[in-house]
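Anyone else keep sequences and C-alpha cells together like this?

Example one:
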Amino acid sequence: MRIVLYSVLILFVCAAAGIGYLSLPEPEAAEPAPLSAAELAKLPKERKGQVLIYGAYGFSGSGISRLAADYGITPVLAGRNESKLKPLAESLGYEYVVLSLPNNHDNLVSVLEHFELVLHIAGPYTYTSEPMLDAAIAAGTHYLDLTGENHVIQADLDRDEEFIRANIMVMPAVGYDVVPTDCLNVYVAEKVKDPINLTVLMNGNVNAVAGAGLSRGTAKSGLEILSRPLLMRQNGEMVMVSSPKVITRTEEGRMQTLVQIPWADMVTSFVSTGIPTIEVYQVSDGEVPSIFPKLAQYRFGRRLLSWMIDEFLPEGPPPGAQENRQTQITSTATNAAGESASATLTTPEAYLLTFHSSLIVAKRVLDGDWQSGFQTVGKMYGPDLVLEVPGVTREDS
C-alpha cells in the first residue's frame, strides 16, 4: 500500500513539474550579431527579379524551393537552422543565408535590401509575420506568405497604408486553402447580383489516401487558431461566437460532419468579394477529439500539443499522397432574393497546390504585375489564377 502511495505521489510531482515547465514563458531571444560582410557578399548585387525563400527547409519551404526553377526563379534560401538549410541549398545549387527572426530587425533589413520579393514560409505566423513585415517595409521588398490565421491577415490589412507608403505589395495566404477558395469565391460572387451570403465547403481528402494530411508547420498554425476566440464573419463584422456550427449529412451513402471553422477566408474573401456573411466548413469523416481545443486555450496545453506535434507527426504527407490525394471545394453565393450560384473546384493535394500557387504568384510579382498595399489573390489576379495550377478543374454546380 505504501509503495502504491509513493508511486502515486511521484507521478503527481512529475506531472506538476511538467505542467510547471510547460507553463513557463518562452525565453527571450538574444539579439544576434550583425551579419558579416562575407555573408552579405553572397547575396545578389542587383535586387530586381531576386527572391528570398525564408523557412526554406520546412515541408512547404523545401517543396517550393525544389520547384522554383520550373518557374524561372533562382531563389536564395534562408532560415535559422544551418544544419537543415545548408544541405538543401547545396543539393539545389542555391546560395543560402542563416537568419533568425526575433530581435533581428537590422539583419533582416540588410538581407531583404538584396531582394525584390520575400516568400515567407516560416510559421506560425502569429509570431513570425510581424518581424518579417517590419523588415520588408524598411527594405522596400514585396511580401508573400502562406498563413491561414485570420487574425494575422487582419493585422496585415490594418497596415495597408504602411505598405502603400513603402510602395510594396503584401499578399498573405498564397497557398492552400486561400488561393483556391478566394478564386472560387470571386467566381461565384460575380455570378449573383448583390450577394449577401457566401458558404464554402472544404474537403481536403476526396480520395482516401493513407498517411498524414498535415505538416508540422500547418498543425502548429492550426493550434494558434484553436487558442484564440472563435470569430466568424456576420453582416460585415467579425463577431465572437460561443461554438461553431456543426452539420451532419449523408453524401454518397457516407455520413459526413461539417464543422464551421474560423479560416482565413473570413478576411480574404470579405476583401475580395465584399460579401458580408461568410461561413466556411471543413468536411470530415471523423471527429477532432474535444480535448485538443480545450488544451489549446492554455499556455501549458499549447506547449504540450506543440511538443506532441514535433514528436509524433511526420514532417508532412507521404509521397504517395501528393500524387493521389485530391481536395474539393464548393462555394455558394446567395443574395437577398434567394438567387444563388455554386461551383466546385477540384485540386491536387493541398501542399502540392501550395508549391505551385505560391510560385505562380511570385512570378506575377517579378513580372511587374503587382499593386502596392494589402492585396488578396482573388481580387488582384481574378478567379482564373487558380486554373494555372496543374490539375485544377472548376465546374458550375
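And example two:
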Amino acid sequence: MFKTYKKLFKTSLIFCLSIGGFLSSTAQNNALVLNGAVVKLNNGTFASPIYLVVNNGSNLAIIRNSGHIISESEGNYVRWMTSNVAVATSYVFPFGFSTTDYIPVYFNKTPVGVVNNASAVTVSTWATNAANLAWANTVTNMVGLAGANATNSAIDRNWQIMTASNVTATTNLYYRGVENTTAYAVGPFSGQEWNVSNSDWMTPTGTGVGVTGAGTIGNSTGITVVPYGISTSSPYILSATSAPLPIELVSFSAYCESNQTHVKWTNASEINVWNMELQKSLDMNIWSTIYIAQPSNTNSTTNYNYVYSETSNSSVYYRLKTNNNDGSSDVSAIIVNQSCSAELASNNLSAFYYYNVLNVLSQFENDATVTYSLYDVQGKRILTGQYVAGKGEQMVSLPINDLSNGVYIFNAESNATFYNRKIIIAR
C-alpha cells in the first residue's frame, strides 16, 4: 500500500497518515481514489509544516467517492502541482472534519494565457473557537467598525491558500453549520484574504447564504484568489457581507483647544450603520452618550468632530458605540484625554493601550524627562526607556505588538509627577 502512495505523492517533511473507515485508496488511471477512506494529517505547524504533495497535475489526480482528508491545522497542507489548463478547471481538495462532515475547497483556475499557470497550489483549513482563535500565524487583528473586535461577524474556520504569484483563480469555501456562531447567521457571507504586506483585510469577494446547526454544510463561492507567492502566508476567512473585516476606523483622538475638548474620528467605510454614539466615562465602568452622529453609509472616508466643554478635572475616557441596521452594535477601543478644565493641575502623565500601541500622554509646564517601565504580573520588567516631553500636551506611542495578551503594570515618572496604571492587552 505504501508503494501505491509513493507513485503519486512525495512529502517535504515526515507526516502521520491515519486511516479511518474501510480503505479503498488505490492507483486508478494515475489517480488517488477515496472510497470511504479518512486520511488524517498530523502535527504540522506554521513553523514546521507538513505536506501531502500531489505530483499529478490533472484535476482528476484525486477522485473522491466518499471519505476525505483531515487537515484541521494551519500547518497540515495538501500541495497540488496543478497543470496548465485550456479551459476553466476546478481542482477539488477533499477536506473534511473528523469522520463525518465533508468541507472541500474548490480551486477554480482560469484558462491558459497566464504565464506559468502550471503552479503549485497549497491549502490547509482548520476550525476555530467562537473568538475565531487560533488565527492564522500572520494575522494580527480581527478589527471591525470603530476598532472593536469583530469576530462575531466571521465564521469559526480559517483557510490558508498559497499559490505562485501569477496564478489566477477563484475559490469556493465550505464550512460546518455549527461553525456559524456569528450575529449574522443567515448571511450572506463573503471571503476575505489577509494582506500580509499591509497587515489588513482585503475587500470581500464572493457570496453565500449562511447556514447553522449540526449536520448542515454552508459555502461561499466565487472568492477571488490574490496570490502572494508559494512561500507567503495567504489566510482567508468568511465574514458577513454586511459587516466585513475591517470596516475601518482610520483615526480616533481627543485634544484640548481654548479650554474645550475636541473629539475627532475618521471612518474609511460605513455600510448598514444606523448611528454612532460618542460615549465618555471617568472610570471606564460607567459610560454616558454625549453625542450621536449620523453615518454617511458609503465606502468613502468620513470625518467627524465633536466639540464640548468638559467640567471634570480628572482624565476623561472616550469610546465609540456603532449601532448597525440589523440591531447589532460594536464598541471601539478606548482613548483618554486630560480634562480641558482650567482647574486641571499643570503637570500630568497618563497612558492607555490601543491596537498594539501603548500611548503615553503628558502635559507639562516646562520640558521634562520621562522615564517609563512596563512589568508583567510576575513583576518582571519587559520594557523600559526614557524620552524628553516638551512643554504643553504631547503623546508618545510605544509599539508593543510582540507582547502576549494579558495584564501589565505601567510606570512613568518625571521630576514633577509619577504615574502608575494597570494596562490590559486584549486583541
